[in-house]
Queue: 4 jobs
Job 1
Amino acid sequence: MAKKKKGGGEGGANWMDTYGDMVTLLLCFFVLLYSMSSISEDKMKAIIQSFNPNAIITQTDPEGNSGPFADPEVGNEQPGLDEIEDAQNEVENMMEELFAAFQQYAKQDGLDSAVSVSMDGGLIYVTLMDRAMFMPDRADLLPESYVVLDGICSILEQSKYAIEEIKVEGHTAQEYDDRPNDPVGDWELSGARAARVAAYIHQHTTIHPARLSGEGKGQWHPVGNNQGEAGKAPNRRVELVISAKEIGSELYKELAVLTSEGGIGVQPAESQNP
């Protein structure tokens, strides 16, 4: 007796493979069309408002550029290279003027032996000799030092927007020829003198305190040989080391955030002798 053939042949599901290939090709085709198309702004608005009739469409440029869709809250926070270069040139001009002003100030009668000025590597160094500033072996300011510091503060104020940082460094001389100074007293004296000058600048200018620092150097950065009074006197000093802003640098950005710069500064205290 003949055997019956089984129904539903073995290739009955092959159509699904062909269908899947066709859907994949159609998907690729539509992706290609989409990549070549441009989005109509009006149609996009219509689609959004069809879902939410009360939607408010705000057109902004997230990069904050100066085009018609610029975000007014962002603005042009990334200036072009030309603008950065112009700003840096302006800073350099202001630093040159600052240096010239200090040179002129140091030439005044009575100040030539108390204040000296130099520039090296883009840094301005203003040196204040201790005999014109402090009581012997103490950090107390002499009464006549207020006039000197007031003049310095006035000059700094005029060029504050070009200044990145003012480091106030205190130095001492080696008291004895055969041994170094007592470490505790040496570091404390140099640090305290630097702190007093930094605090005076803080109190009598609108330079933000984040741009000021005070540091004691002790006897370890001498400019004289410490032999006799003539070799010790130059070492007893306080130096202002003034650096210029470097537009776009990391330090510039950090200090700009700290000081909220763009014109907002700290109001100076009432000028008075501490």
Note: The two ends are 126 Å apart (CA to CA).
Job 2
Amino acid sequence: MSKDDNSSHEHRGMNVSGLRRSATGFVLDREDLNDDPVAQFEDWFRYACETVAMDPNAVTISTVDKHNRPASRTVLLKYFDETGFVFFTNYESTKAQHIDHNPNVSLLFFWSDAARQVKILGKAERVPAAETLKYFLSRPRGSQIGAWVSTQSSVISSRALLEMKFQEMKDKFSNKEVPLPSFWGGYRVVPEQIEFWQGRRNRLHDRFQYTKQENGNWEIERLAP
């Protein structure tokens, strides 16, 4: 076997174990926490908006398919309140198909600069059409047209096809309002459990978990790091 033949079987990869830092985040004690996890999230989110350079509302949503295989992707949180956390997507996308099969999802916010994470477990449900329309009308026109163009998650032959379809839709809706696609809308993740993770030195992180009780109250427990 030649030297060239040997080199073709070399393993590829990197040892990244040396990429580490000792987080020096804030102290997080029980007395620091709001009894309402949504109010606590709002406090952390406002801080993230002040300190995260780009997309503090970016959140990883994890779903499972009909074979119980997990899948994760990043979406943008658009608003939240005591009823849940809302994002928008194509209702024919892979994530939507997963949610239709199993509404149990996980949301994960990671704000590296603050050494903070928030994990939310809950059930995803479609928001009412009127609520979706209100948000859709607030979007930039290009984003409205884009919602009509992409058959999200499906295989396409080229980028040029997308650009062509975008121009077709742009011409179709020229000088008129872009209507809401019937296959596009929002999901609200209704939380059942919310964990706040604060990075600390020596991997001794502070973690507190809120769990919704049957009476509607939230139980708060400290978790080991």
Note: The mean pLDDT is 91.
Job 3
Amino acid sequence: MLDVKESLLGRTSVRRYEREAIPAETMDFIYKAVENTPTSYNGQQFSVIDIDDQQLKETLYELTGQKQLKTCNRLLIFCSDYNKITMLARRKGLDVPHFTDTMDGVTIGIIDASLAMMSAVVAAQASGLGSNCIGYLRTVDPAKVAELLKLPKGVFVVCGLALGVPREHPDLKPKQPSSLVFHRNAYRHDDEAMVAELEAYDEVVKQYNRTRAGGTTENDWVAHILEYYDHAMHYRILDYLRDQGYDVKR
């Protein structure tokens, strides 16, 4: 078992896995870490779908083209979930506010599911497993994914997490320096200094991509991320959320 420092600071995204199964006691540890995640109001507005069915994993791979979906041993899909509390409220004759029709309601479910996923990432890393967060499961074909996973109203996919014994050990990606991440007491407004630091980071990322193991590119940071933003402008997530019972109005 790795310590907390090793688990957090040595984490990389692993996309190739060995065929061996994850021990039951390791999955139990990951489950317990997820269950103990802090959530808004202790409402626990999330659920996790644990997929070990190879055919289902391969179907999701065919949708996304993400090879880690079919090579991982377990695929955890973290969902925002207001279905559980709605079921119990109705059983007890309680009125359910239309909280899912607000941005706060949507945001809280996403936050809870994301915190739960990070609990799983740390637990998996500490156990010597590799992991990879797969946001494309949220956007590739939301209606089809919801159908495959039999998601009821009030539940939508936030992110997937591939888990397995790593077959690769990718280089650690460079992250923004602390001076760009942390602001003391209020947001920094020394724009020229920040832009200079961002330009330097952009060059670090470009050099990393030129020299990294497992395939090189000429990608920098800013243009590559903006290309993703441009592609994501075509997603129709709000329509999908409405189909799942989140009629966001405010």
Note: DSSP finds twelve helices and four strands in the chain.
Job 4
Amino acid sequence: MLMGMMNNFYRYKYLLWVLVVRDIKKKYRRSVLGILWSMLNPLLMMIVTAMVFSTLFRFDIPNYILYLLIGQVFFSFFSESTNFAMNAILDNASLLKKVYVPKYLFPVSRVLSSCVNLLFTLPPVLFMMYYTEQYPTFDVVSIFIPLVALLIFCTGIGLALSAAAVYFRDILHLYGVILTALQYSIPIIYPEKIIPLQYKFLLLYNPLYYYLSAFRQVVYMCKVPDIHTIVACYVFAIISLFLGVVVFKKAQNQFILYI
């Protein structure tokens, strides 16, 4: 099943490229700053959040600005890519009714376009590392190890969500609530040590925790992620992709009746 999808990716590579470019252009249409918002948005969100939490809660976290920025950039990509992919089939209903193309190209293109936006946020992260005197080492290139795993993980989630949204439109509204719960279930804005011991097990079963940990090890701690974290990231990525492909394959033949 996966090999067939990979062959189709090569066969329809130009279409996939066009879809990714179209999604990026659509996002920044009629915007004065355009794609620069991908760089400015995480910085502005970090400034606002850091002012609130560093003043009101006073978390004892060294270099809290960088700690917070990494978490926000990571979760923004997960949130945007899966949310964007969820609407892929419904948004392209008119095209799917007119011509045959592999339907999974649409949610995959949404995840890839979000990944391009994520790459544009990396320069602000490097800037903040220098600004906070957390100078990057050569190990910073290892950020692509968890990034590839996260891309695969989000692709699997996006495939499943895009199929589910065709049959259950309520998920379009429910998913925003789920994202909020997920955002506060992992230590993005707060330190991990404040989580009560009896609830620590919840982190161990949360895939997002391992991806966040891997990104922080690279950028915040300036080291290559440990093997346990890397293995966990790729195990969750493979499981997510497998389940997403299975769900999408079983549902796609009936899409035309519901879109």
Note: DSSP finds twelve helices and no strands in the chain.
